[in-house]
UniProtKB/TrEMBL annotation, chain A:
The keyword Oxidoreductase does not apply. PANTHER family: OLIGOPEPTIDE TRANSPORT SYSTEM PERMEASE PROTEIN. This is ABC transporter permease. One of its GO terms (cellular component) is plasma membrane. Pfam families: BPD_transp_1 (PF00528). It is a multi-pass membrane protein. Residues 104-315 form the ABC transmembrane type-1 domain. It is found in: Cell membrane; Membrane. Keywords: Membrane, Transmembrane, Transmembrane helix, Transport. The chain crosses the membrane at residues 12-32, 110-132, 144-169, 189-211, 252-276, 296-315. GO terms for biological process: transmembrane transport.
C-alpha cells in the first residue's frame, strides 16, 4: 500500500510540474518586454495589413488575446495546450505541434545513442580504473577522463566538425539525412542517417569522462567497505565478488547520474544541433529564439520539459526494480 | 562538551593522535563513564575529577585546533596530492590573470597587428590575432575577469540556495517542506538551458556578469537542495541535534550552526561543479549569440570565429583554439580541485590511500563513524 501511495504521489507531482511549466510559459508570454504582440501587429501594419486584421492574425498565432482578462485568457490557453494546440509558428507558418512532432525523433535518436555509448564507456573505464587503482593505467586513464570531462561537448563538436568534416571530409558537415535518397527503410538512407548522426553522437562522448570518474569513485568506495572484507573471508571467488558485490553496488548511483543527464542533454541539444545544423528539436528551438517565434519557442520549451519530466518519472518508477533497497517510501533517486 | 561535531574530527584527531589535546577529549569521556569502576578497583584510571583537571584548553589552544582542523590539515593533505597541486595552481593562475593580468596586459584594439597572425610567431601578440588584427592573448586575459565574476555569482547562488532551501525543508518538515520541495522539484525538472535562454531574452540583463551568473544557475540549485534535504532528514535524528532542540536553541541556529557544518564537504565539492557549469553554459550562450556582448570573452571569441568562417580557413584555426584552451584549462583546474577536495573530505577514500597513518582498528572505526552518503553525491 505504501508503495502505491508513493507512486500516485510521484505521478501527481509530475503532473503538477508540467502544469507549473505551462503556467510559467503563459506568464512569460504575458511578461515579455516591449510587448511582442504589439510589435508583431506593428510589423504587419507596416506591411500594409489592415490594423484589425493584423491584430486578429497575431492573436491567432500567439493563441493569446491581449484584450481578454487574464484569467479567461489563461483558461483558454491551458485548454488549447491540453488539446495539443500549441499555436502556429510565426516563422515557419506551420502548426507548432507538427514541426515539433517531426523534429522530435531525430533528437531522441542522437540523444539515446549518446547516452548509451557514453555511459557504457564511462562505467567500464571507471570500473577498470578502480580495479587497478594507483597503477599506471589508473593514472593514465584518470588524466584522460579529467581531460574529457573538461571539454564542453560543443567545443568537441566544433573540433570534430573542423577536422572530420571540413578538413578530411569523412562526415557530412550539416543536416540529418542524405539528400537525393528516398526516405524509408533502405540501406543508403539508413547509412546516410547514421553518417549524419555520427559526429553529434561522438561529441557527446565527452560526458563519459565525468561518468567514469564517478564510477571510479563509487567503486573505490565499495572496495573499501566491510562487507567485501567479509566476502573475502568467506572465501567467495573473485568473480562473484566483483560482479555481485562491487559492480552492483557501484553502478546503482550511476543510474541517478544517468537520469539527471537526460535532462541536461535535452537542454544541450540546442547547442549541439546548432553546431551541426541537425534539424531536431534543439535546432527548431534555437531558430525560434532567433526569429523571436514565441509560439514555437514556448512549444519547444514545453515539449522538452514534458519529455524530461516523463523520463525522470519513468526512471523513478523503475529505480525500485534496479535497486530493491530503494522500494517504498525512501525511493528518492535524485 | 562544547566541541562542534565536524567531519574533520574523525581523522583530524587521529592525525595528531596523543600529542595533542584532542585525544584527551575521548579519554575524558571514558573516564566519566567508567569512573565508578575505576574507583572500586582503586586502579590507575583515576577519578573523573582528576581527568578533567588534566585537560585544560585555553582560548589559544582552541584557535590552534580549529586552525589545524580547517586550514592546516586540509592544505597539507591537498599539497601532498599532485592533482590538488595542479588544480590549485591552474585556478590561481586564472585568478591572477583576471586581477593582476588585466592591469599588466593592455586591452586589445582593432588592427593592433596583422589579420590572423599565427601564434608563437611575434612577441607583441604571442597567441596570434583574429581577422581584425586583435591580439588573442589580450582577449583571453581580459575575458577572465568577467568570467570569474560570473563563476563567483553563479556558484555562490547555487550553493546558498541549495543549502538553505534543502536544509530548511529537511529540518522543518510539514508544510514548509512540501512547498520548498515542490519548488525544488520544478527546478530539477525544468531543463536548464532553454529556461536560461528564455530568461535572457525576457529580462533586461545588460552585460552585468553577476546577474548572468545567477541566471545560468537558476535551474541548477535544485539537485543540491534535494541532496542536502535528504542528508538533513537523517541528521535531524542524531542525538546532538535532539540535544540542541531539548536545550531550546532556536531552529535557525540548529540548522546553520549544527547541521550545515556537517554538509560542508558536499557543499564545497558542489561549488566546483557549479563553477564548471557556469563556464560551460556562459561560453555556450555567448557562442550561440544568445547573450549580448560588448567586451570580448571566450564564448564571444568563439562566436566571432564561427561567423568569421574560421572553421573552413586552415590558417584561422588558432582563433578557435585559443578560447577553447582557455575554457578547457580552467575546467581541468576545477575538476582536479573538486577531486582532491573529495579526497580531503572523504575519510574513507583517504584511509585507503594513507594506510601508513592508521592501523586496521582505526580504519574500521573510521568507517563506522562516517556517513558515506554525505560525501557520496559529488557528480
Amino acid at each position: 500500500m505504501a508503495t502505491l501511495d508513493w507512486r500516485i504521489r510521484r505521478i501527481a507531482q509530475s503532473v503538477f510540474t508540467v502544469w507549473a511549466v505551462l503556467t510559467l510559459s503563459f506568464a512569460l508570454i504575458r511578461m515579455m518586454p516591449g510587448n511582442p504582440m504589439g510589435a508583431m501587429v506593428a510589423q504587419l501594419e507596416s506591411q500594409g495589413v489592415d490594423p484589425v486584421r493584423a491584430r486578429q492574425l497575431v492573436e491567432l498565432r500567439m493563441s493569446v488575446d491581449p484584450t481578454k482578462p487574464i484569467p479567461i485568457a489563461y483558461v483558454e490557453y491551458m485548454g488549447s495546450m491540453l488539446q495539443g494546440d500549441l499555436g502556429v509558428s510565426t516563422y515557419y507558418a506551420q502548426p507548432v505541434a507538427e514541426i515539433l512532432a517531426q523534429a522530435m525523433p531525430w533528437t531522441l535518436f542522437v540523444l539515446s545513442w549518446s547516452l548509451f555509448i557514453s555511459f557504457f564507456i564511462g562505467i567500464s573505464v571507471g570500473a577498470l580504473m578502480a580495479y587497478w587503482e594507483g597503477g599506471k593505467l589508473d593514472v593514465g586513464m584518470t588524466s584522460w577522463a579529467i581531460l574529457m570531462g573538461s571539454i564542453p561537448f560543443y567545443v568537441m563538436a566544433i573540433l570534430l566538425l573542423i577536422f572530420c568534416s571540413y578538413r578530411f571530409g569523412w562526415f557530412p558537415t550539416s543536416g540529418r539525412a542524405p539528400t537525393g535518397v528516398p526516405a524509408g527503410v533502405n540501406w543508403p538512407y539508413i547509412k546516410g542517417i547514421v553518417h549524419h548522426a555520427a559526429l553529434p553522437v561522438m561529441s557527446m562522448l565527452v560526458a563519459s569522462g565525468i561518468a567514469s570518474l564517478g564510477m571510479r569513485g563509487n567503486s573505490i568506495r565499495v572496495l573499501g567497505s566491510d562487507y567485501l572484507r567479509v566476502a573475502h573471508l568467506r572465501g567467495l571467488s573473485d568473480v562473484t565478488i566483483s560482479t555481485q558485490y562491487v559492480a552492483r553496488n557501484a553502478v546503482l548511483p550511476m543510474y541517478t547520474t544517468l537520469l539527471i543527464s537526460i535532462g541536461e542533454m535535452f537542454g544541450g541539444s540546442i547547442v549541439l544541433e546548432k553546431v551541426f545544423q541537425y534539424q531536431g528539436l534543439g535546432y527548431y528551438l534555437f531558430s525560434a529564439f532567433n526569429q523571436r517565434d514565441y509560439p514555437l519557442m514556448m512549444g519547444g520549451f514545453m515539449v522538452i520539459t514534458v519529455a524530461v519530466v516523463i523520463a525522470l518519472l519513468l526512471a523513478d518508477m523503475t529505480y525500485g526494480l534496479v535497486d530493491p533497497r530503494a522500494g517504498g517510501q525512501h525511493s528518492e533517486t535524485y | 562538551m562544547k566541541r562542534t561535531e565536524s567531519p574533520f574530527d574523525d581523522w583530524e584527531g587521529r592525525e595528531e593522535s596523543d600529542a595533542d589535546g584532542s585525544a584527551e577529549d575521548g579519554a575524558g569521556a571514558d573516564g566519566a563513564t567508567t569512573g565508578g569502576d575505576a574507583m572500586a578497583d582503586g586502579g590507575a584510571v583515576g577519578s573523573p575529577f582528576e581527568v578533567v583537571s588534566q585537560y585544560e584548553e585555553t582560548r589559544r589552544d582552541r584557535y590552534r585546533k580549529l586552525f589545524d582542523a580547517y586550514v592546516y590539515a586540509p592544505i597539507s593533505i591537498i599539497w601532498r596530492d599532485w592533482r590538488a597541486r595542479i588544480g590549485f595552481t591552474i585556478v590561481l593562475a586564472y585568478v591572477l590573470m583576471g586581477t593582476v593580468g588585466t592591469v599588466i596586459v593592455p586591452p586589445t584594439e582593432v588592427v593592433e597587428g596583422p589579420a590572423l597572425a599565427q601564434p608563437f610567431q611575434h612577441w607583441e601578440y604571442p597567441l596570434g590575432t583574429d581577422d581584425m588584427g586583435r591580439d588573442l592573448f589580450a582577449q583571453t586575459v581580459h575575458a577572465t575577469q568577467e568570467m570569474l565574476k560570473m563563476i563567483t555569482a553563479g556558484a555562490l547562488f547555487t550553493v546558498t540556495m541549495g543549502t538553505v532551501v534543502g536544509a530548511v525543508a529537511g529540518y522543518k518538515g510539514g508544510m514548509v517542506d512540501t512547498v520548498l520541495s515542490s519548488i525544488t522539484d520544478i527546478c530539477i525538472n525544468i531543463p536548464g538551458l532553454p529556461l536560461v535562454m528564455v530568461l535572457v531574452l525576457l529580462l533586461p540583463i545588460g552585460g552585468n556578469p553577476y546577474v548572468i551568473g545567477i541566471i545560468l544557475c537558476i535551474a541548477a540549485w535544485g539537485g543540491l537542495a534535494r541532496a542536502i534535504r535528504s542528508q538533513v532528514l537523517t541528521l535531524r535524528q542524531e542525538s546532538f541535534v535532539e540535544a540542541s532542540r531539548a536545550m531550546g536553541i532556536p531552529t535557525r541556529r540548529i540548522v546553520f550552526k549544527e547541521i550545515v557544518p556537517h554538509l560542508m564537504p558536499f557543499v564545497v565539492i558542489n561549488l566546483t561543479n557549479a563553477s564548471r557549469r557556469v563556464i560551460f553554459e556562459a561560453a555556450a550562450l555567448y557562442y550561440l549569440g544568445v547573450l549580448p556582448f560588448e567586451d570580448l570573452n571566450w564564448g564571444a571569441t568563439l562566436n566571432l570565429a564561427q561567423t568569421g568562417q574560421a572553421h573552413v580557413r586552415p590558417q584561422a584555426l588558432h582563433w578557435f583554439l585559443v578560447p577553447m584552451v582557455a575554457i578547457i584549462f580552467i575546467s581541468i583546474g576545477l575538476i582536479l580541485l573538486g577531486q582532491s577536495l573529495d579526497r580531503v573530505f572523504n575519510p574513507r577514500v583517504r584511509a585507503r590511500h594513507e594506510k601508513t597513518t592508521s592501523d586496521a582498528g582505526d580504519d574500521a572505526e573510521e568507517e563506522s563513524t562516517t556517513n558515506p552518503d554525505v560525501m557520496g553525491g559529488g557528480l
